[in-house]
Every structure is written in structure tokens, then in C-alpha cells.
Amino acid sequence: MPTAQPIRFQPATSTALLRQLLEQRTPGHSLEAPFYLDPSVFQADMALIFERHWIFVAVAPQVAEPGDYITVDVGHNSILIVRDDDMGIQAFHNVCRHRGSKLCEAHQGSLGNIVCPYHQWTYDLEGRLIHADHMGETFLKEQHQLRRVHLRNVEGLLFICLADEPPADFDEVAARMKPYLAPHRLNEAKVAAQVDIIERGNWKLTMENNRECYHCVGNHPELTISLYEHGFGYQPGPQNEEGLARFEQIVEDSHAKWEAMGLPSARLEELDSRVSGFRTQRLPLDRAGQSQTMDTQVACTKLLADFGDAALGGLSFWTQPNSWHHFMSDHVVSFSVIPISAERTLVRTTWCVHKDAVEGVDYTVENLTKVWNATNDQDRRLVELTQAGVASPAYRPGPYSPFTEGLVEAFCVWYVDRLRAGVASLG
């Protein structure tokens, strides 16, 4: 059988080309170059992935008090997330129902009511129009509420869905994750730091890079201080048999201890087998075993809850298509990936600590953020190198390691399956 020729970057792709790209995808290999380069593929990603699935956008402590708000841009959609007077969290399209002005320009702030800067139409914190001058006696304010966006608060992690009918399986994901996440009390925490970086690369390269640690040795000296080497994934063989067995025993013993403390730890892995793909597992950290810091000790001496032991390893929670999170005894670090263009991606990292922790007494921002600030910058460089490489005419999809890159393949399988379903719905 003749080998399929690689499909090169074409500025004017179509649904037909998307179908061709999807059909030609070789399992166990990276994607064809247009998936990372072509503006029309990017538009399909936004329409069929980011506007149809649950995406992670924020943590609840970002809107801690009534009137606190944040805005998030997802493609052409500006979303306003606000804490209402009853302490509920609401999400709306950040668009006035009068003539379409953006309501809130800042990324975050606090307000009493939502007032359009153009003609001062005013909405309460539940999206009801409460004031609109000069509209006549027959004008009905109740017909002009802000357009709602589906929002779910999963134990302090805020997910939105822009679809009219969001994927229903997310309810099951939230229910299964609750016992894992709830003990860390993220809803009651506070934001200690947030850092945005722009990677000059396609969002899928950002996610693929996150889904493996094949690259960690030699690239992430700060991160690997707290990670067991054999937790990265290894090809089985006599040279590492003893080390792998030792690591597996440490995991087994740690899980038994944590489960006895009421902290679920077993792996749940459904990254490519459901619409709302996810994965979680609590794994031991090396050395002191307390936190992802330079000395592996807690970054915040005031723990998130009354755990009784600071050495709880790290609970990882990954969601498709755009997030990963690490829950430790003393802090939570969350990552949100938002595409900007075919070759630019926003990576937003948020660190949360106990709400009563005092900066300079219980923690310092520098120590709290040092490992992941360094790691994010290193990953940014790797993503940008890969983006430059896939743009070369010499690029061909390469094979994934079955021992260290299985979760990259799971991401690509999920992405291809969901994009294929989206394309099919277009007729």
C-alpha cells in the first residue's frame, strides 16, 4: 500500500480538508501539520471543541465576595463571571442586550450592579435588567435579561460551556471527583498569585506537552526535585526493574495511608473514553513529600484543612480539553489553557492557599510560585520550538513512546474523536 503523503499547510482549508485530515490521522503518532498551523482548523477547534465542551476558566476564590467578577475571553466570546448577593456564582455573555456593548472591560474587579458603559442599561447580579431609560411604556425589561452561560462549580473549580445543550456526562465527572477534591476546601481558599503567559504555539502543543514527562529530565530541574523518577514512565527492563518495583510499593503504601485518612487516591482515567474526558490520581512526592517546592516542604504553613499530616503527595486532576490541577496539603495550583490564534495560546496559572494565611508570615509568593513559574517558562520554550518545527516542510508526524506518551495519545484520540463528531454534525 502506498504511504500517504503529508498534508501541508493550506490557508484556505474547508470541511472537506478537515475530514481528510481526520481520516489520515495515524494512531500513536503526532498530528498532521495543519492541525497546529491552519487558521481554518483553529476556527474549527473553537467552534467544535471550545464552544461545545465544558472548559475550565477560573477558581471560585477569584470571585470571593458578592459583586466580585472576572471576565474570560474564549474566541469571540467574552464571558462575565460574578458572585451574586446570595453567594451563588453566575456566568453571562459579557454583552449588553441593548446594542451589544461589552459590559466589563477589566479582567477582574468588583461592582454593585452591572452597568453598561454605553447607555447605562443596568443589570443586577443575577442578570436581570433593572434600569433602561427612554424605552417607552411598552418596553418589557424582563425580556432583556443577560444571556446566561452554563456554569458548574466543581469543588472550587469553575467550568463553563457555551453550547445550548452542554455534555450531560459532566454531572457524573463532578460527582466522581467530589470526594477527591472536597477535602482540600478550595471554595474556602484565597488566590495568592496568578500569572498569565502567552506561548507562541498552538494550544494542542501546550496540552500535549503537559500530558507527558518524557521531557522532564533535563528540562525541568525545579519540578523534578519533588517527583519520583520512576513515576515519569519507563520502558520495562532489567535496568529499572528494581526501581519501578520500589516506586510501585511506595504508591501502594501511600494510597493505603491516605485512603485511611479519608482521601481517595486511586487512579480514575477516562481521558479518551467519554465526551468530558478526565483523569485523577494522588501520587507521592519525593523527599519531604509535602509540596511542589524547591525543598519539597509546604509553601504555606497554614494547611488548607485539618489534615493532621502535611505529606499528602499531590492529587492531579486533568480535564479535556484545557486544564490540569495539583492539589496538595498546603496549596492548589490550577492551569487554564485558552487558545488565542492558531499559533498563540494563553496559559493562566493560579495558586490558592488557606483564606486566613498571611503573606510574609505563612507563605511568600516567591516560594509558592517558584517551581511552576520556572516550569511554565521552560514549557513555553519547548512548545515554541515545536511550533517552529511543525511549520517546516520537513515535518512528518512522529511516533509516541508507548511507555511515556500514552496520555498524549489519549489527548489526541479524544481531540480527533470530538472534532470528527463535530464535523459530522455539520452535514
What would your notes on this structure say?
- The protein is of the alpha+beta class and 427 residues long.
- The chain has two domains: 55-154, Rieske Iron-sulfur Protein; 171-418, Naphthalene 1,2-dioxygenase Alpha Subunit, Chain A, domain 1 (Alpha-Beta Complex).
- Helix content is 26%, strand content 22%.
- The protein contains eight helices and 17 strands.
- It has helices spanning 15-24, 34-37, 39-50, 170-181, 203-210, 241-260, 365-390, 406-425; strands at 55-59, 68-74, 77-83, 89-93, 108-110, 114-115, 122-123, 129-131, 150-154, 157-161, 189-199, 268-270, 278-283, 314-319, 323-327, 332-341, 344-354.
- The strands form four sheets. It has a seven-stranded antiparallel beta sheet, with helices on both faces.
- Strand 2 (68-74) and strand 3 (77-83) form a beta hairpin.
- Helix 1 (15-24) packs antiparallel against helix 8 and helix 3 (39-50) packs across helix 8.
- The longest helix is centred in the last third of the chain and has 26 residues, at 365-390.
- The chain is globular and about 85 Å long.
- The two termini are 30 Å apart.
- The model is unreliable at 7-13 (pLDDT under 50).
- This is Aromatic ring-hydroxylating dioxygenase subunit alpha.
- One of its GO terms (molecular function) is dioxygenase activity.
- Its cofactor is Fe cation.
